[in-house]
Amino acid sequence: MSSDKTTVDTSKGGVPADEVLPPAVEVIDPRLLVREQGFRGYITEFKRRVKGGELGSMPVIAALIIIFVVFQLANDRFLSANNISNIGYYLAGAGMLSIGLVFVLLLGEIDLSVASVSGLAAAIFAVFTTTHGMNMWLAVLLTIVIGVAIGAIHGFFLAKIGVPAFVVTLAGFLGWNGLMLWLLRKTGSISIADTGPIHIVDQTSFFMNSSIAGAYILATVGVAAMLLSSLADQARRRKAGVPFRPTSEILLRTVLLAIVSYALAIVLNNSNGVPNALVLFLVVLVICDYVVRRTTFGRKVFAVGGSIEASSRAGISVPGIRIAVFAIAGGFAALGGLFIAGQIQTANTQAGSGNLLMLAIAAAVIGGTSLFGGRGNVWSALIGGLVIQSIQTGLDLLNMDVSIQYMITGGVLLAAVVIDSVSRRTQRTSGRA
């Protein structure tokens, strides 16, 4: 007697007829639903992010606005064209150190040697050019290569030997500072000629030779680049079927950037224009932002910072990433040292000393890069640097003692770390960490 029931050989991967699974339900990304609600949807998304601890750069931007308002009320010269130009110029040197530190912090590590490496780089460059008469551009290249090599040495001891980064870079902080003092032992300082690369980044050099068109050209390029990259990203995401920003949001962001950019251009043109040092700093930021967010290497850095074990199981060379990141930090420390040497046109025994290390670390952390690894972006170096440099400049205008500057900067740094810690705890509680 035959049966109407169809049998399936389950030993070969078949599924019995009475156990056939229902068709999969398509899951829609909630961000798509939010954006379909228009302005109300963005308010909902904003509340969700705040409750989930995803604060991003909101706290530091709010702090920056408060700083501007307070110091402008205390001294109406704070937002003057000359003062804004000085803030942009002086944040570039320490900002270069901060960019390298952002890469290190994304790994959840720390580099205490960058200030000493920057001072050593200035001394090496001065010896190459002034003492031995080397071509200045070649000296710049060799100095940066030496900085990269120093960082790679630190990374090797961390990744291959297993020495904690704190110990390795603390030893570097002392050792490289000692080497700098040894190089400058005869005179204590070496003057650097104000030509070539040094002249490009000194305080008298501005984009397009102080032409009023320079600032507007930069603003136009920046706005156009953001618009085109946003539209390209939208098209790519639309084609892949993943959430993308609607055109209305892209246009709104572009308009807001244009307002800020052209307003800043107007202010700087009332001084001498845009300092070359600031232009180069912003160019480096854009390049590094692309590397961190758009390349395989950048994704690996975030992965290692998030979980070393998971990264290893995914086939990522954790030692290789660590060595590469510390090499990047060393290279940027050397570049920052050259920027700072360009400010004073001298390499001396005080280079890399004082509070430079703390300010570089503070800028990265205050800007939003987490000390716990796996979260942040290179724009932290700019935003955090603006906060610190604004505080220093504002207090200088008020003739405040340097001790007050240290205390206020320390308080801001502590607040940034507290916000980061609370944010992470909130994310874990809400299941988003």
Automatic annotation (TrEMBL):
Q: Name one GO cellular component term.
A: plasma membrane
Pfam families, A to Z: BPD_transp_2 (PF02653)
Query: What's its job?
Result: Part of the binding-protein-dependent transport system for D-xylose. Probably responsible for the translocation of the substrate across the membrane.
Source superkingdom: Bacteria
Provide the topology term for how it sits in the membrane.
Multi-pass membrane protein
Q: Tell me if Transmembrane is a UniProt keyword of this record.
A: yes
Record key words, sorted:
Cell inner membrane, Cell membrane, Membrane, Sugar transport, Transmembrane, Transmembrane helix, Transport
Recorded source organism is Actinacidiphila yanglinensis
- Write the protein's name: Xylose transport system permease protein XylH
**Molecular-function GO term, any one:** transmembrane transporter activity
Location in or out of the cell? Cell membrane
Q: Which InterPro entries match?
A: ABC_transp_permease
